[in-house]
Amino acid sequence: MSATYTNIPSFVRCAGPRSASEAATLAARVALAVVGLAMTLSAFALWLVPGSTPVPDVMFIKLGSSLFLLIGGLSALVGARSQHR
């Protein structure tokens, strides 16, 4: 005879996705979070790359692209975090 403990709190239970659509939604949210994190980090890494010329025209392009990456990455992270029910 073995003793089993069945009164496990709900936050301990690890239930997977219940259907294929929930699994697809989870995969899309993970992919969106990875893309958002990569875009956000690359916005800052763009300024750390050595060897770029300090020409004002290039700096404006660099500033614009880093702002685009930062805003897009943060939007993707927020979108991946939201749960629509």
What string gives the helices and strands in order? HH
Largest pleated sheet: none
Q: How many DSSP E strands?
A: 0
Number of domains: 1
The tally of helices reads: 2
| End-to-end gap | 43 Å
Keywords: Membrane, Transmembrane, Transmembrane helix
Transmembrane segments: 26-48, 60-80
Explained architecture:
This protein is mainly alpha-helical and 85 residues long. It has one domain. The chain has two helices and no strands. Helix 1 (20-45) packs antiparallel against helix 2. The longest helix is centred in the middle third of the chain and has 26 residues, at 20-45. It is elongated. The model has no long low-confidence stretch (mean pLDDT 82). Keywords: Membrane, Transmembrane, Transmembrane helix.
Quick overview of this protein structure:
This protein has 85 residues and is mostly helical. The chain contains 2 helices and no strands.
Per-chain topology:
Blueprint: H1 20-45, H2 56-81
Helix pairs in contact: 1-2
Which descriptors would you attach to this protein?
85 residues; mainly alpha; 2 helices; 61% helix; transmembrane helix; transmembrane; membrane
